[in-house]
Design a protein that fits this description.
Blueprint: E1 6-11, H1 15-26, E2 31-34, H2 41-46, H3 48-66, H4 81-105, E3 109-111, E4 115-119, E5 122-125, E6 130-138, E7 142-144, E8 156-157, H5 158-161, E9 170-174, H6 178-189, E10 193-197, H7 209-222, E11 225-227, E12 232-237, E13 243-247, E14 253-255, E15 257-260, E16 264-266, H8 273-276, E17 299-301, H9 312-327, E18 342-344, E19 350-354, H10 357-364, E20 367-374, H11 377-382, E21 388-395, E22 401-407, H12 411-423, H13 428-432
Helix pairs in contact: 1-9, 3-4, 3-6
The structure holds NADPH dihydro-nicotinamide-adenine-dinucleotide phosphate (NDP).
């Protein structure tokens, strides 16, 4: 049998790669991992984690306004972006340290440099060092997609949004998905004038229509501007600062910042995948089977680079399943990609699991829909005219819940528990049989009519 330097070499130390490497090492494999940027990957370094901290920071704007109706007089509140930015970045540093520590304490060798596949079982590091491995795992994630327009280099992506030296007075965000809506909410709460520009006429495609409409309505009420069916013609630097932006069917306008959030493309370029025959899909994603195995027997891929479901918890599950299946003492198993709960951390947030009403009608024919459209108690006292919406979609044939959708403060926190019920195949009657916890927003889950 051939002798390799490592049993497993992982390229990319993000959520999927770190989990896979740590667990493989715990199963007894000799493991190394390479990371060209920072240990932790998109989620920890420039995604979910710092984004959520900014969402918290931004939401204080509303809390500080609302608290007056609850009797608080706090004088004039001021906001210091640099302070929040630096505190968030310091926490990211802490987390990077914790992830590195996890790897090292499991005896995973960490190479902080780029790695490229140069032979069937060979990896070459940027420093020139060649390493051999019995198995190779590609967990290189994805990167922001950029549009094809003049002056695209003047725009930023979510990667840079965490490092801004000042907040823009006026920002245009391209895209109508997760990142566009989350950052529109963040900038808007911090006082920036925000415009979302989307190529189509739908925000958050894939989410239930009623919730998307509600978010649009609330976002407009909060002052966010929307332009649909529009693309960028050019972005030009303004000599006095900022940029001139020309959108299709619009006059040129001046903004301080342009941010692109139009999806993410798998990081497969320049990895040497063609030299060993790893097959790619139409979007440059690595094609894998249910066990995350690529077209090459000993090369696997997990996470965003496979473009199955671009969510951290799924990358982690795929990494775990890979490690258990290849190095553990279990029958190989794959990850169930059905019924995955998700959330958009907009203001207010959206959370969802299972089929939308439209999807359920197409898939099942006959469905029952239950709804609760209410103004949360806190908003009532605060005088905030912002209504929440819960929706439950059931299969009319057997009452089984096939989808739950919510837009409400803390919707993602409520959804995690509700998603267990949907995944477990519970019925509307099971929810009805559960007593409400009063007074909460979550009680609407068992009171829907
Ligand atoms: P999304 O896929 O959510 O949305 C992309 C948006 O950009 C859509 O509105 C899409 O329009 C539009 N678009 C796509 N291609 C182009 C193009 N060439 N020109 C103009 N517009 C275009 O992408 P994001 O960048 O917001 O986020 C990337 C992924 O990261 C998400 O899919 C999600 O998986 C993950 N993520 C998850 C978060 C969470 O869980 N809370 C938070 C942030 C990101 P159309 O609808 O017409 O295709």
């Amino acid at each position: 049998m051939a002798d390799y330097d490592y049993d497993l070499f992982t390229i990319g130390a993000g959520s999927g790669g770190v989990r896979a490497s740590r667990v493989s090492a715990a199963h007894g494999a000799k493991v190394a991992i390479a990371e060209e940027h920072r240990v932790g990957g998109t989620c920890v370094i420039r995604g979910c984690v710092p984004k959520k901290m900014l969402v918290y920071g931004a939401h204080f704007a509303e809390d500080l306004e609302d608290c007056q109706k609850f009797g608080w007089d706090i004088g004039e509140a001021t906001f210091d972006w640099i302070k929040l930015r630096d505190n968030v970045l310091a926490d990211v540093d802490r987390l990077e340290g914790a992830y590195t520590e996890t790897l090292e304490s499991h005896d995973v060798k960490v190479f902080k440099e780029r790695a490229v596949i140069t032979g069937d079982h060979e990896i070459t590091l940027e420093s020139g060092k060649k390493i051999t491995a019995k198995h190779i795992l590609i967990a290189t994630g994805a990167q922001p997609r950029l549009p094809d327009c003049e002056g695209v280099e003047h725009g930023i992506t979510s990667n840079e949004a965490f490092h801004l030296d000042e907040l823009p007075k006026k920002v245009i965000i391209a895209g109508g998905g997760y990142i566009a809506n989350e950052f529109a909410g963040i900038f808007n709460e911090f006082g920036s004038q925000v415009k979302i520009v989307n190529r189509g006429d739908q925000l958050l495609r894939g989410y239930d229509e009623a919730l998307r409409d509600r978010l649009l309505q609330i976002s407009i009420m909060k002052g966010i501007d929307f332009q649909f069916n529009s693309v960028f013609e050019y972005i030009k630097e303004c000599p006095d600062g900022g940029y001139f932006v020309k959108l299709s069917d619009c006059e040129e306008e001046h903004v301080d910042l342009v941010m692109f959030a139009i999806g993410r493309t798998p990081n497969t370029g320049g990895l040497g995948l063609d030299t060993v025959g790893v097959e790619l899909g139409d979007n440059g994603e690595i094609k894998v089977d249910e066990f995350s195995k690529t077209s090459v027997d000993h090369i696997y891929a997990v996470g965003d680079v496979t473009d199955r479901v671009q969510l951290t918890p799924i990358a982690i599950r795929e990494g775990q399943a890979f490690a258990d299946s290849v190095f553990g003492d279990v029958e190989p198993y794959g990850v169930d990609h059905s019924c995955i709960p998700s959330a958009v951390f907009s203001h207010p947030p959206i959370a969802s699991v299972g089929m939308t009403e439209g999807e359920a009608k197409s898939a099942l024919g006959s469905v029952k829909v239950f709804q609760s459209d209410f103004r949360p108690m806190k908003n009532v006292l605060a005088g905030r005219n912002e209504r929440s919406l819960f929706k439950m979609v059931c299969d009319a044939a057997d009452d089984r819940i096939v989808g739950i959708h919510m837009i409400a403060p803390e919707a993602p926190e409520m959804m995690q528990a509700a998603a267990i019920a949907v995944k477990a195949g519970l019925t509307k009657a099971d929810f009805d049989a559960t007593a409400a916890i009063h007074p909460t927003m979550a009680e609407e889950l068992v009171l829907m009519r």
